[in-house]
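Before relying on records like the one below, remember that each one covers exactly one chain. Contacts with other chains, cofactors or solvent are not represented anywhere in the record.
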Amino acid sequence: MRLITFTQDGSTRIGRLNGDEITDLSQSNPELPTDLVAFLEAGDAAMDAARAADGKHYSLSDVKLESPVLRPSKMLAVALNYRDHLEEVQEARPEFPTPTVPILFTKQNTSINGPYDPIYLPKESEQLDYEAELAIVIGKRARRVPKERAMEVVAGSTINNDVTIRDWQLASPTMTIGKSWDSHCPLGPSLVTLDEVDPTNLEFTCTVNGEVRQQSNTSNLIFDIPTLIEHVSTALTLMPGDVILTGTTSGVALWMPGQPWLKEGDKVRVEMDQLGAIENEVVADPVGTIIG
């Protein structure tokens, strides 16, 4: 099943996607929550109701697709979780150790962006970078989950671009500020449940203006999905809707010759086998001071 969050006539709600046709769950079953986090909190009964929902209410051209998850309680990201990305870092910085446990950081939920919405290039930096990633969405409240049961708590998977302001990231001992600018976490286009797609073996690419910058397979993760869930849930209670960004592969602009940072007008596309694609254009940050 493919679950989406969409806006139509000024109202944002969730639906089930079948090809280009949308079943509006609020019309098929008004008792279902209209927010995906609340929907996941409603448990297996809500999932069953969504699968049973009937009606084809809209086509994709009728609506605006949003990030499947709008405001998760937590977004946890993993650094250096592909061997080739680790090697490109260690080539430039030989003193960098090989991780023995996942390197985790947080990405603030205000950075979440729609799958086709623009990415803001701020005036404070020109070092705007891309990172194609698989995102895992948690479906059940979970603590101390062993690896052999980890996939029981996964609602499904989606695509992420972990957009990064490199100089802000590297200026601080922690990565949060360089990873969390507004609009710098496009997610989507849908949340695909595990009964439809196994996220552990998916080919993916990242292109900038059609040029391939990154290419790998999710099977190449150093710390796989069950290991990540076991590790994180040992310390933190995972909640429905929480997002784990599993890490990126080699080819980011930071470590490429000439450092080809993203610039205004660039179109960044992340495509992942069976999950679809997200594509975002880089624009100058249009947002000024906001108070209240």
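The chain has two domains: 2-66, 75-284.
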